[in-house]
Inverse folding.
């Protein structure tokens, strides 16, 4: 009985640590005709042991660990981003770059995604690593 419990706990732990890009990760690559988006996860200790899902429109596109970021291109127009499910809708314009930070929200004991300035983004990008 203890062996089955241990195996179950290991399986749950491994699933919670899964990270990387999903099959629905955007594949656009032309910066002139599209908007570039960065989603950065802070390197806070809260939630350090598990990955957070990044949602674009109706799909999970990646799972980020603490201190990681992703970059991708989207077609111009309105798109929704969020943690686990889309929560922020943004009108993306072609040729522009947009930065978002996932950080701990201590009032709700969860995580939130919010847009940050270019200057803030450069600081965060220097402290984090790209998801490969």
């Amino acid at each position: 009985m203890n062996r089955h419990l241990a195996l179950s706990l290991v399986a749950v732990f491994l699933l919670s640590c899964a990270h990387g890009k999903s099959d629905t990760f955007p594949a656009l690559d032309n910066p002139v005709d599209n908007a570039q988006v960065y989603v950065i996860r802070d390197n806070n200790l809260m939630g350090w042991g598990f990955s957070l899902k990044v949602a674009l429109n109706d799909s999970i596109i990646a799972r980020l660990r603490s201190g990681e970021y992703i970059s991708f291109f989207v077609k111009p127009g309105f798109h929704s981003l969020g943690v686990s499910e889309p929560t922020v809708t943004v009108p993306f314009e072609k040729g522009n770059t947009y930065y978002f930070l996932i950080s701990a929200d201590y009032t709700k004991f969860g995580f939130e995604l919010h847009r940050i300035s270019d200057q803030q983004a450069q600081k965060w990008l220097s402290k984090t690593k790209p998801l490969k």
Q: What stands out?
A: The two ends are 39 Å apart (CA to CA). The chain has one domain: 19-130. Confidence is low (pLDDT under 50) at residues 5-16.
